[in-house]
C-alpha cells in the first residue's frame, strides 16, 4: 500500500466499512437488530457527551440510543424514536492509530458492543460473539 497517497476514510467510506462489518456479524445476531438504525458521524454531539459525563469527544467510539430489548423495546410506541447506533469516525480513527488492530476489527468491536446494549448482553456475551466473527 502506498501510504503517501492514502487518506483516512471519509464519512461515506466509513459508512461502507460499517455496513460491511455489520454484514459479517452472525446472521442470527443481525436478525434481532431489525429496526435498529446505524449512523456514522465524525463526533458525538454535546448532548451525548454531557449525558455520559465525558469532556473529550475522542472518548466515545460508539453509542446506543433508545430502549433496548432488555427494557421492553421489542415493539415501538407511538412517538418513540427508532433505536439507533452511532459510530464515531474520528474517535475510532484515533483509537486505530494508537492500537494494533485493523480498522475493520475496531468497527466490528464497536458495533457488537453497541448492539449488545440493545440486547442487554453482558461483556462476556459480547466477547463470545466477537470470537465468532
Describe this structure as you would to a colleague.
The structure is a single chain. The protein has a three-stranded mixed beta sheet with strand order 1-3-2. It has a single domain, classed as 2-Layer Sandwich (Zincin-like). The protein is globular and about 50 Å long. It has helices spanning 11-23, 27-31, 46-52, 89-98, 103-119, 123-131, and strands at 37-41, 62-65, 84-88. The mean pLDDT is 86. With 133 residues, the chain is mostly helical.
- Major sheet: 3 strands, mixed
Q: Compute the gyration radius: what is it?
A: 15 Å
Order of helices and strands: HHEHEEHHH
Total helical segments: 6
* CATH architecture heading: 2-Layer Sandwich
Instruction: State the end-to-end CA separation.
Output: 25 Å
Could you give the count of β-strands? 3
Total number of distinct structural domains: 1
CATH class: Alpha Beta
**Poorly predicted runs of 5 or more residues:** none
Structural class: mainly alpha
Strand content: 5-15%
Shape: globular
Write down the CATH topology: Zincin-like
Strand order within the widest beta sheet: 1-3-2
Kindly state the percentage of residues in helix: 40-55%
The average pLDDT is 86
Amino acid at each position: 500500500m502506498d501510504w503517501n497517497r492514502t487518506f483516512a476514510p471519509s464519512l461515506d467510506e466509513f459508512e461502507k466499512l460499517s455496513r460491511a462489518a455489520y454484514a459479517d456479524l452472525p446472521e442470527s445476531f443481525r436478525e434481532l437488530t431489525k429496526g435498529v438504525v446505524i449512523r456514522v458521524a465524525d463526533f458525538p454531539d454535546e448532548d451525548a457527551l454531557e449525558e455520559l459525563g465525558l469532556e473529550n469527544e475522542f472518548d466515545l467510539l460508539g453509542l446506543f440510543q433508545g430502549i433496548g430489548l432488555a427494557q421492553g423495546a421489542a415493539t415501538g410506541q407511538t412517538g418513540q424514536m427508532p433505536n439507533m447506533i452511532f459510530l464515531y469516525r474520528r474517535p475510532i480513527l484515533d483509537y486505530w492509530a494508537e492500537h494494533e488492530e485493523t480498522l475493520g476489527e475496531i468497527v466490528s468491536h464497536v458495533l457488537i458492543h453497541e448492539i449488545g446494549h440493545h440486547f442487554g448482553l453482558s461483556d462476556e456475551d459480547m466477547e463470545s460473539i466477537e470470537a465468532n466473527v
